[in-house]
Specification:
The protein is an alpha+beta fold. It is built from two helices and four strands; from the N terminus they run ααββββ.
Length: 97
């Protein structure tokens, strides 16, 4: 019985070793172990965010406080704002008004 199980165990071990040694292209930069954060949202970057704040009727809101991370500003007369040097992710930024 042991001689029958031994070849199966060897094949399973080799199969596991082969699968575990595979990795996606581009994994070299972080040791082959991508983090859940970078997989979902990308890496941390410094970005510029430009937008416009409007009321329910589509009219611009002047002087509204806009925040993203540690950056903040107020909208101009047309409701437009610009935040520069915001620390965010490649695919996610959290902005509050």
């Amino acid at each position: 019985m042991t001689t029958i199980l031994q070849p199966k165990f060897s094949i399973l071990f080799l199969l596991f070793f082969f699968i575990a040694s595979c990795k996606k292209d581009g994994d070299e930069g972080n040791g082959g172990t991508p983090s859940p954060t970078s997989d979902l949202w990308g890496n941390s970057v410094s970005i510029q965010i430009v937008g416009q704040v409007l009321d329910d009727n589509g009219n611009p809101i002047s002087g509204a406080q806009v925040n993203a991370g540690s950056s903040n500003t107020a909208t101009d007369a047309m409701g437009v704002f610009r935040l520069t040097g915001v620390s965010a992710f490649q695919r996610l930024a959290y902005v509050t008004v």
